[in-house]
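Thread: Modeling a multi-component assembly for a lab meeting

Hi all, long-time lurker, first post. My supervisor asked me to bring a structural picture of a complex we are working on to next week's group meeting, and I have zero experience with this. I have the sequence lines for every component (330 residues in total). Could someone generate the structure of the whole assembly? Inputs are pasted exactly as I received them:
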Amino acid sequence: MSKKITAAITAVSGYVPEDKLTNFDLEKIVDTTDEWIRSRTGIEERRILKGEGKGISEMIVPAVKQLCEKRGIDPMEIDCLIVGTVTPDMVFPATANIVCDKIGARNAWGFDVSAACSGFLYTLTVGTSLIESGRYKKVVVVGADKMSAIIDYTDRTTCIIFGDGAGAVLLEPNEEGLGIQDSLLRSDGSGCQYLRMKAGGSAYPASAETVANREHYVYQEGQAVFKFAVKGMADISAELLERNNLTGDDISWLVPHQANLRIIDATANRIGLPKEKVMINIQKYGNTTAATIPLCLWEWEKQLKKGDNIVLAAFGGGFTWGATLVKWAY
Ligand code: UT7
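Re: Modeling a multi-component assembly
Sure thing. I ran the full set together rather than chain by chain. Output:
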């Protein structure tokens, strides 16, 4: 009997733009303070992708090239490339298609997934199913967002949180049982009232009025989202451990979506993980939406060991949320 195929992460890469927007820069733009931002969110600075006509593909292309170089593969070997994002280069075509063209991945098909801050977990789960089906050998899963494109820099409640970045992983078949073990994903569209970008889609196409009403920016009721996020991310992480008969002691790392340090702490406490086992880089990058989790894996890659149990957890617009259990493969 042939062994069950699992989907293993075999390489990780990332890209963050060089330009930094610090809390002190924001003090000059809106009525806020470094102290308020650090104590309420944990953020000190974020990266911003500057330049006319530059969308997320500008960040994904170097990240995927780096991924191929690290693994020693040619882009022509990629079977499928999936991008989790809410800030695609354009409404269509999919950014995945644009990226495949720019890197010369001519044998690949691809598509974008819109799941906001859970975008990486959603794409990872889809990519895992493609590998487990046995039909695909190399699937690139990307989480990328250029939040600076949809942030209102006169709104102090949102502009202090978000930043730009991209992260990517390569998924390949594994016969040792390593890789993605389990995934729990949820969504609740009623959350749209608390977190959305209203205009620019088919319901409210761009018009002089939508621009004047500032409806092409992120609208967030922070406190309401905070309450759902704390409960959603903590509950689903605990549920994932429970259904895999694991406790915090069995987990080497928690990789939480980086939205707010207080949400991260609540999740870590709930599953009984000390701070040393939690990946946190929110102070450097802020909330890069779909990119936070792969950017953490990229930064901590050297510290990860084969066989480590890792929990990835996210909560975001949609509402969407989820948790994924990974057994590190290298
Ligand atoms: O990643 C996608 C999902 N998103 C999230 O998970 C974000 C969840 N929400 C949050 O992280 C937090 O709600 C925020 C960071 C957005 C806001 O923090 P908060 O502790 O919930 O603040 P608040 O909205 O309750 O506001 C408290 C006070 C208010 O003043 P008053 O009414 O008490 O006088 C705000 O006007 O802080 C004020 N405030 C600010 N003050 C200085 C709001 N933003 C700022 C600011 N600087 N930037």
